[in-house]
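Board notes, transcribed. Complex of a protein with coenzyme A.
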Amino acid sequence: MPTSATTADAPPGLAIRYPTTLIDTRRLGGAQHLLLRPVLPQDESLMSAFLLAQSAGARRNRFHAAINPSPRLCRQLSQVDDRLQLALVVCTLDAGLEQLVAEARYCVVDEGRSGEFALMVDERWQGQGVGGWALRALQQAAARAGLAWLEGEVLADNRAMLSLAQRCGFACIPDPRDDGQVRVRRRLSAVDASTAGAGKARRSLGLWRRLGRALTARAHSLRCVPLTH
Ligand SMILES: CC(C)(COP(=O)(O)OP(=O)(O)OC[C@H]1O[C@@H](n2cnc3c(N)ncnc32)[C@H](O)[C@@H]1OP(=O)(O)O)[C@@H](O)C(=O)NCCC(=O)NCCS
């Protein structure tokens, strides 16, 4: 399987790589299929629907402010410069239509030594392991990309995220500059780079090839824009 999709004749300014090795699948409750994959620029409208469906409280926990999911924000979240950021989405099909159930990303900071992460799971899908899956996928991708740390800022009253971070091995340190915030930080290792891959290896190579081909076609018009976290 190729490590990335390439389009030799992509117009200037268009990103041409799609990291298909990051694609993963999972079943919830034995029936519901979920696909975890890198975000695509075409996900802008799915991103908008996803953010609009979340409560103001969930959006505050994710963005640390009462944000409005404007077209500009949704474009920023779905059109990423893969040199600066990794963005993943978890999708499902609802009545045959794709919808997002989670988004997770890290931005490269500290001169390439660390990734600053954030994630959000649709409130209807929380408490089923989706957040843990997405966070571990970020850990694995960051470790494979050679980052030494994954870290994030979590609101001090966000018990769900602090609990998840602890479960994933992050140290939680009160932010000395802001008592409403906790810094979560985890050192990455070679083990992080390899763990999630064990499950993938057992899965059908044919499935990955089909997914890779389908997403390569969708990725044809990838566009790079600088992105805020
Ligand atoms: C934090 C968040 C990503 C967790 O996603 P999730 O899919 O529910 O995560 P998982 O199902 O993998 O794990 C949830 C864990 O949190 C715990 N949890 C869930 N809700 C909780 C709550 N209200 N209080 C305390 N713990 C809670 C669960 O018990 C579980 O831990 P356990 O497996 O040890 O029991 C999700 O709640 C979310 O998107 N919140 C809004 C956005 C946000 O806070 N983003 C974080 C910004 S950095």
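The pocket of coenzyme A is lined by residues 58, 61-62, 118-121, 126-132, 152, 154, 158-161, 163-164, 167 (CB under 6 Å). Helices lie at 44-52, 56-63, 71-78, 130-144, 159-167, 190-195, 197-202, 205-218.
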